Amino acid sequence: MAEQQKEPLSATVNKVLDEYLAALHADEEINSEAADRLDALLRKGKVPKFEDIDAVLFPPPKGTIP
Amino acid sequence: MICIKTIHIEEFRGIRTLDLDLGGENYGICGPNGTGKSGVVDAIEFCLTGNVTRLSGQGQGELSVRDHAPHVDQRENPGKAKVTITATVPSLGKEITITRSVKNPRATTITPADPAIQAIVDELQPHPEFALSRREIAKYVVTPPAQRSTDVQNLLRLDHIGNLRKAFVSYTNKCKRDAEEAERTRSRAEADLKSALGLPALDREKVLEKANAQRSVLGLPSLTELTPKISFKERAAEEGKDAKKSGIAKDVTLAELTTLSAAIQAGEPADLKENRESALASLKKLKDDEKALSLARAHGFITTGLDLVVEDACPLCDKPWEADELRAHLKAKLLSAEEMGTVLENLAKANGALIGGIGDRAAGIRKAAGYAQMLFPAIPRAELDAYAEALDDAKAALTAFQDDHSQIEGAIAALEVEWWGVPADAQTRLDETRIGVAALPDSSAKDKAIDFLAILQDRYERLLATTKTGRAMAARNATAQKVHDHYNTVSNKVLEDIYDAVAKEFTEFYKAINDDEGKFIGELKAEPAKLSFNVDFYGRGTFPPGAYHSEGHQDGMGVCLYLALMKHTLGDKFTFAVLDDVLMSVDTGHRREVCRLLKTKFPDVQFILTTHDRVWLQYMKTEGLIQNGQFFGGWNIETGPRIWDDTDIWTEIQEALDKDDVPRAAALLRRYLEYISAVLADNLRAQVEYRGDSNYDLGDLLPSTISRWKDRLEKGIKSAGRWGHDEVKAALEAKLAEANTLIQKTNAERWAINKSVHFNEWENFTNAEFKEVADAFKALLDHIRCTNSKCGGYPYLTPRKGASEQLRCSCGTININLKTK
Question: Which of B17, B230, B353, B401 keeps 20 to 30 A from B268, CA to CA?
Answer without folding.
Answer: B401
